[in-house]
Structures are given as C-alpha cells and as structure tokens.
C-alpha cells in the first residue's frame, strides 16, 4: 500500500503543469483535523523549512513534490495541530531533576523516608527542595517542621505541596528566614501555628512548619535559586521527556521573575536555537511590589526577550489562594470555618485591595502587557472581573485578551461578563473529577452542594467565551492533553469505562451538565490557546503560511469512544517543520 501510494503521488507530481515551491517534506494519507474553520479536514501537509506550504488533498500536495522531497505516509493516522498549554510552569521542571519527588507517595512516613534518602544522596546541596506532598494526607494546619527535623536538621528543607500553594519547611528553614512566634502573617499569606502556642514570648503562636500563599516567599527568598545551568537542564528535560512525547509545542509559563535565572535560561536556549516549544511568559506582580519601580523593570525585561520562541509579554497576578489551603476567596464562608479559623464567617483570603488591583491592571495594560490572573474562589473571580472592567473603562476597548485561570468556583452571574470583557477562561480539565481532593478536602471545606458545582466549562463555550485549556504542571503530572481532552468530555478519570453521553449513573461525574465535545476540547488546546497567547498568527491551526507544528496520534480521538481517548499516544511531534519526537 505504501509503495502504491508513493507511486501515485509521484505520477501526479510528474504531470503537474505548474512549478510551485518544492516541499522539504510531504506528509500524506492522513486524517488531518486542521482547526481551521475554512478547511477543517485534509489528507496531506506539505512543509518547507519551518512553515506549511499546503494543507489539503493528497493530489493537491503532489504539486509541491520535488526530487529531494521526503515523503511520509501517515497510514490513515489522525493528525492535529501541536498542543498549546495555556498555563504550565515549564521552568519548574528543574524540580523534577534537582529535588525530591513526593508525588503519589500518599503517607507521611513515606514523605520523610524520601527526604532522608534524597538528602543522603546529595550531601553537597546547600538546601533540600522538593514537591508533591498532599493536603489530603496532612489536612488542617499541615505537616510539621519537627517531622522534617527528624530526618534533616543541618540544612534548610523546603517542600511544595502538590498544588504549589503551601510549603512544608524544617526548623532550619524557619530560622534562616527569621520566622518565629513573633512573626505576623504577611499580607496575602498565612503561617500555620501550633495550637495553644500563643504566649508573651510568642504573641502570634509558634510556627508549625507549614506556610501558605505569600508566606512561602519568606523562606523561598532566603534560599538560593537554582542556577541558570540547572534551569537549562530542567527545561531541556521538559522538552525531551514531557513536551515532545505529549505533543506540546507551545507553552504559557505564568510565574517568571524579573531578572531571574529561569528567564535567563529560556533566553539562552532561544539564542542557541535549542527551544523545541514556543514560549510566552508572564512576569509575577505581587500586592507588596511598588508598581512605580516594578513596571519600568518589567518593561526593560520584556525588551530583552524578542525572539520568536521566547517573549515575556504578560503579567501574572494572584487574586486568592486555594481551597485545600483555606485561602481561596469565597462568597460564602467555608463549611468548616468555625473549626478551621474559629470564625463562622471565614471565607478565605483576598490578596488585593479592590482599587489597588484595578490600578495595577490599568497600568500594566496601558504599558502593553497582557493580564493573567489566578482566581479559584467565586469572590476572587468577581473582584478580577470588576477590576478588568475598570481598567477597560480607563484605557478604552482594545485587543487585550486577559485571562483568568483555574476558575474552580464561579458565580453564574459572572459567565456573561467574560464574553463582554473579552476575557479568556483558562481552566485545567484534568481537575474535573471526583477524586481524593473532592472527597477529603472539597466536600468538607466547601460543603454540598457547592462542591458539586466546580469548574464550569460548557457554560463558557455556550456564551462564546474563548476557552484555552491548561495543565498547571507540575501541579498536574503528566500534563497530557489527551487525558485532559477525555476528562473534559467525560468529567471523570481517564480510562473509566461507561457509556457516553448517558452513562448508567452520573453519581460519580463532577457536574455532568458541563461536559463538552471532543472538538471543543481540541480547540481549547490548539486554536483557542494560540489566540490566548497572542500566537494565533503563527500557530494553533494547520494552514498554509503557519508554523509547521503538528502531532500524529496512534488512534483517531474524533471517532473512538470517549473513554478510549486517554489511551491514545503521540507517535510523532513536529515543531517548526522538524520532528522533535518520534515514538
């Protein structure tokens, strides 16, 4: 069949009257979903250099054949545009290489054993870092410094929770950061305290060893950052072992620091032609930053990064924290408010004053930066929309494409405002499930029925809101878009088998009315995500003139049963015309 197809292609090419540009490679005989409404399907893609020459039929592609053109028979495989993750901390892949991995261990004694083993294997590291412990294992005030002290006491230890909104530290880290019983909670942060430890010597209570939200910076700022070379290694690890095998060709990295080593590592890789993903980054702005000095510094940073594959043209804000840390900002109190905070009206933490947030949005928008905001709680999302409305009124309507990410709880009254203000919804479909977090944290902390109405998605699509999907890696590991597509369609764990769209029971499905279609999910990881990143002029769809970024899949996810989408794998990832991964 392959020989016959090639012979037919060559014969057609030989008979072509015109002499259009000759392709370097022609991929033919596939089932191509282009993402382009003007030509949604095709059989072949002709590529020259890093661009697409032609997308269409096998016969049409034959016109671009030349004596040196390489022919690739797709054998009927499904081809889609390269996946773009609209909120992924790719630079944090350094932690997969240079820190202790606690993901999936699921028990305090296993966490401690892993830390002890890592510390013993790395005696020269000045600090022990890690991530992946779960709030479901140690709820309430979180894990204790004394537990870490039992395995490492001579060096600071700082371990992110798997949601990256809490930090577990040992006593050496607390000492290094100057945190003790006389240290108040920072603005937008919380230092967990040992119960009953308030005294004249410790007026705020003795720190227990867990820091939430902005309080994590007290320790992190006291520790040395990873080096530029370590970030380079982490990013190349990400490209080789994460992005390529998962078909990811574009990322929005939303938490970069001005002048940071991660930014320098990105720039070096871009300069050396070693990036195999297109990167758009956001510089972090915190409430305590002096906007008058921060903004010129951000503009200077942006001016350094003008490569096609790496730019820092956005600003990242946090409007609140997370439900599992009791720091998400809600419109109604937490179900366990009395038990957790001693206040039945406790509803979480607002990180910004209303007017300060509106002023900051106005300033960064006027300076030409895109706005990207973390909002988990419904109160936080409403505040962000109010501040965006104020900025738009002050600066005038223009193509600004601000994004709000996570959107765990959203007031239905706010759905239409996304479309009215041109705001992109950036959810993480991987989280659309009733998992241990739902059972052991969200239901107890939020209560029912509120916990059953998390993560709207169809509501946004129905209103014409731009929806761009994301993973929030390394919160989600692995950040596999195929798993996310299946979960967005089914709102249950990838691989769970039941009949769709009417399973025998919806009891185990998180808000089944918010399920979307496979094509909507594909758009959210391709065309929509490119638009959200301001890269839709070069990628996100397969069309002549666009960057040759596409993925060949092992099965047809547009035709297979939804419960089988997650079993598909990436056979080939092409980025800018080059094969960067092959199974």
Description:
- The chain has 583 residues and is α/β, with parallel strands linked by helices.
- Residues 495-504 have low confidence and may be disordered.
- The strands form 4 sheets. Strands 8, 15, 16, 17, 18, 19, 20 and 21 form an 8-stranded mixed sheet that branches.
- Helix content is 31%, strand content 20%.
- The chain folds into 3 domains: 2-76, Urease, subunit C, domain 1; 127-220, Diaminopimelate Epimerase, Chain A, domain 1, CATH 3.10.310; 228-540, Alpha-Beta Barrel (TIM Barrel).
In short:
The chain is α/β, with parallel strands linked by helices. It is 31% helix and 20% strand.
Using only CA atoms, what is the Rg? 25 Å
CATH architecture of the largest domain: Alpha-Beta Barrel
The profile of the biggest β sheet is: 8 strands, mixed
Total separate domains: 3
Could you list the spans in which at least 5 consecutive residues all have pLDDT below 50?
495-504
> Which structural class best describes the helix and strand composition?
alpha/beta
Q: What sort of overall outline do the alpha carbons produce when their principal axes are compared?
A: globular
The proportion of strand residues reads: 15-25%
| SS field, number of helical segments | 19
* C-alpha termini separation: 22 Å
CATH topology of the largest domain: TIM Barrel
Q: Number of DSSP strands?
A: 24
Percent range of helical residues: 25-40%
CATH superfamily of the largest domain: Metal-dependent hydrolases
Average pLDDT value?
94
CATH class of the largest domain: Alpha Beta
